[in-house]
């Protein structure tokens, strides 16, 4: 949501400013992949990158988009009848049969664990009404997420269509978006899944192709593999350790398993999640009406290097109270905003709420950090 700001010369607002350790500029690491990126899942900070914005074919990591659209459709419990078009799809397959009936949920498991191209087409036909309809949905979602250097032309990533590409950065954005969905997290992190088979007296049993998840790296939480002749090896993975939730993407990476482990190990060693803003009451406020009455609902944590010492600021902006707010019932729910900056770029924000905070919040003492900077701040509407 966008916010609009207006400055009036005669009306004041108090801004609180304090400094924490900064984040170092993103760096490159010696990896085998032509394009690579390591991103913090929670904040979106890019920790390492190599040709991260270069457009490339992406092969089956395309299916992350297919999976999240299927999940968001709300139709996972519906039964899908497999078409001849789906059965005839080349490449990796679940070996579905024409006329076979299977739930959309099981198709998504087969898509993510075994990279079934037949499952991708069946999902597209069910969710989008047709392949073309689903491709339109894919590109709409990409635009919504902010994947500005991506174009989708199929649901599986095969080289059979033109204008199908993305970047390591865009695929990290997509994965960050998908990982906010609990169902996606469960499916992506499943090592083995059993699905009923309507055509035979045995069940499908699918083991995840993501070797990082199934044994190579203990901190892996999910991801998706990919390969085509033109794209070469592509890989998206996620990992969690010591409060850090990370996303790694490699495109055209001949040694991608080790690339991901290498990036993760460096990040887990070098970076620590630092709470730059605590949740709880904002104390020692210079505006009488706000004293003991304003608070932040959610903390803000950002990964930083141990040696970093500057360039991160947190600024609090509060609306100047209006006369009608003497009756507290007229005071708006949100009366300000805390903005977090790194290298003068905003990396996050939290709304400041009016009222009694939850008892579980830790108190935040902001004494001795008031500045003389005065400005009006209006148009606050995002509930963080």
Features:
single chain; 384 residues; alpha+beta; Spermidine Synthase, Chain: A, domain 2; Beta-lactamase; 2 domains; 7-stranded antiparallel sheet; 5-stranded antiparallel sheet; 18 strands; 24% helix; globular; disordered N terminus; disordered C terminus
Structural summary, described in words:
With 384 residues, the chain is α+β, with helices and mostly antiparallel strands. It has two domains: 14-22 and 274-374, Spermidine Synthase, Chain: A, domain 2, CATH 2.30.140.30; 35-254, Beta-lactamase, CATH 3.40.710. The protein contains nine helices and 18 strands. The strands form five sheets. A seven-stranded antiparallel beta sheet has the order 12-13-17-16-15-1-18, with no helix packed on it. Helix 1 runs antiparallel to helix 3 (104-114) and helix 3 (104-114) runs antiparallel to helix 4 (117-128). The protein is globular, with a radius of gyration of 24 Å. It starts with 13 loop residues before the first strand and ends in a 10-residue tail after the last strand.
Helix content: 10-25%
Biggest sheet, spatial arrangement of strands: 12-13-17-16-15-1-18
Shape: globular
Secondary structure class reads alpha+beta
How many DSSP H or I helices?
A: 9
Q: Summarize the helix and strand pattern as letters.
A: EEEHEHEHHHHHEEHEEEHEEEEEEEE
- In total, the number of domains comes to 2
N- and C-termini, Cα separation:
11 Å
| CATH topology call of the largest domain | Beta-lactamase
- CATH architecture heading of the largest domain: 3-Layer(aba) Sandwich
